[in-house]
Design goal:
The protein is an alpha/beta fold. It contains 13 helices and 11 strands. It is an enzyme of class 4 (lyase).
C-alpha cells in the first residue's frame, strides 16, 4: 500500500479506495479490523512511565480511529485530523481550539442553526462574543473586525439559503489581521472544494452526511493546516471527544464509494433542480450552480462541482396550509433534517426569525430538498403530485 504522499498524486476515486487500510498489516484482509478498547497494557514499568505505546489509553485513540484520521488528512491535504461524534461537535472542537475568554468571532449569518445556538449560549457563557455577518460580504467583512477578533467561521454555501461566499477574499482579510478561519465544508466535501488549498485553517465536515452516506452514522471531522494542528490536537486530547469504533468502520466503508455517490448526487441534483425550475409553482431555485443563486460567481470561482442538496422558493400565492397539504402526503420524499443519505428528503424552512445580519425575504414559502438514489422519474412524479396539492 502506498503512503499518504504517494496517494496524493493519484485521482481522488483511487485515493478513496486505498486510504485508511493496509492489507499487509491486516493478515491480508482488504479492510482494517475494528479495534474496541479502553485499557492498554504495558510490558514493564519503564514503558508505563514513558507511555511507550502508539496509544497510551483508549482516549488516545485506536488503530481504527487512526486509519480514518489518516485517510481524511490525506484527502484534505491537511496536517492532521480529529474526529468527533457529530458535526456540531466537530464545529465546537474547532472553536474551542481557536478561542479563549474575551475573544470575538465573526460567523456567517447563513450558518447551520445549531451552531448559532452554540455560539449564543455556551460560547457566550465562557466569554466569547459573536457577530454574524452577511454571507455575501466578501472583503467588506474587514469593517466588522474588532481588536479582539480571533476567528471567522464560514459555511459555503449556506445549507438552507445557499449563499456562496467569496472565500478567497475573506481568507485574505483574515490573514492580514492574523485571524483564524474555520469552514464548514459539508455540502461540497473535499471532492468539490479543497479548503486548505485556499488558505482555510480548519475545515469541518459533518461525516454524518456524504461520508457516511446511509443515514446510519453520526460523526464530525476537523482537519487542520500545519499552523493550527497542534492546538486542535491538544484541544481534542483534553476533551477526549472520541468517536465509536463501529462508527469509524462505517465511515471507512463509506469512504470507498463516496466519490461515486457524490458525483451521482451532483447529476441527480442538477436534473431535479432544472426540472423544478420549469414548474409553474416554483418561482426560484437556490442551487449554487444556477446563475440566480446568491454568490453563483463565487461557486464558479472556487468549487469544482455541486451535490444533491438545494432549495426552492414557491410562488408567493401559496401559504403555510398549502405547503402542509403538499408535504403531508408525499409518497417517496420524507421529512427529515439531515441529508447526504440514500433517501430523498424535503423540509420547509424559514430563516426570518433567527437571521440578524441579513433580512430573509425570499418572496415565497421555501423548501429544502435532498435528492436521494430513488428512480428519478418516480421522484419527479412524487413532486409533481405534491405541487398539485398546493392548490
Amino acid at each position: 500500500m502506498k503512503n499518504g504522499d504517494d496517494l496524493k498524486k493519484l485521482h481522488v476515486s483511487t485515493q478513496l479506495s486505498m486510504l485508511g487500510r493496509n492489507p499487509n498489516e491486516q493478515s491480508g484482509f482488504v479492510n482494517s479490523p475494528v479495534y474496541r478498547g479502553s485499557t492498554v497494557v504495558y510490558n514493564n514499568c519503564e514503558d508505563l512511565r514513558q507511555r511507550k505505546a502508539p496509544f497510551a489509553y483508549g482516549t488516545s485513540g485506536t488503530p481504527t480511529i487512526a486509519n480514518l484520521e489518516n485517510a481524511w488528512t490525506t484527502l484534505c491535504h491537511a496536517a492532521g485530523t480529529v474526529i468527533s461524534s457529530s458535526g456540531l461537535g466537530a464545529l465546537a472542537l474547532a472553536l474551542f481550539a481557536t478561542t479563549k475568554s474575551g475573544d470575538h468571532i465573526l460567523v456567517t449569518d447563513s450558518v447551520y442553526r445549531p451552531l448559532r445556538h452554540f455560539c449564543n449560549t455556551l460560547l457566550k457563557k465562557y466569554g466569547v462574543t459573536t457577530t454574524y455577518y452577511d454571507p455575501l460580504a466578501g472583503a467588506q467583512i474587514e469593517s466588522l473586525i474588532e481588536e479582539n477578533t480571533r476567528v471567522i467561521l464560514l459555511e459555503s454555501p449556506g445549507s438552507q439559503s445557499f449563499e456562496v461566499q467569496d472565500i478567497g477574499a475573506i481568507v485574505a482579510v483574515a490573514k492580514r489581521h492574523h485571524i483564524s478561519t474555520i469552514m464548514d465544508n459539508t455540502w461540497a466535501t473535499p471532492i468539490f472544494f479543497q479548503a486548505h488549498a485556499l488558505g482555510i485553517d480548519l475545515s469541518v465536515e459533518a461525516a454524518t452526511k456524504y461520508l457516511g452516506g446511509h443515514s446510519d452514522l453520526l460523526m464530525g471531522m476537523v482537519s487542520a493546516n500545519a499552523s493550527h494542528w497542534p492546538a486542535l490536537r491538544a484541544t481534542y486530547d483534553a476533551m477526549a471527544m472520541l468517536p465509536g469504533a463501529e462508527d469509524c468502520f462505517l465511515a471507512l466503508r463509506g469512504l470507498r464509494t463516496m466519490h461515486l455517490r457524490v458525483k451521482e448526487a451532483e447529476a441527480r441534483g442538477l436534473e431535479m433542480a432544472h426540472w423544478l425550475k420549469a414548474q409553474p409553482e416554483v418561482s426560484r431555485v437556490l442551487h449554487p450552480a444556477f446563475p440566480e443563486c446568491p454568490g453563483h460567481e463565487n461557486w464558479k470561482k472556487y468549487f469544482t462541482g455541486s451535490t444533491g442538496l438545494f432549495s426552492i422558493v414557491l410562488d408567493a400565492r401559496f401559504r403555510q396550509e398549502n405547503v402542509d397539504n403538499m408535504l403531508n402526503h408525499m409518497d417517496i420524499f420524507s421529512m427529515g433534517f439531515s441529508w447526504g443519505g440514500f433517501e430523498s428528503l424535503i423540509i420547509p424552512f424559514d430563516c426570518t426569525e433567527y437571521r440578524t445580519a441579513t433580512a430573509w425575504q425570499p418572496g415565497g414559502m421555501t423548501l429544502r430538498l435532498q435528492i436521494g438514489l430513488e428512480d428519478i422519474d418516480d421522484l419527479k412524479n412524487d413532486l409533481k403530485a405534491g405541487l398539485q396539492r398546493l392548490y
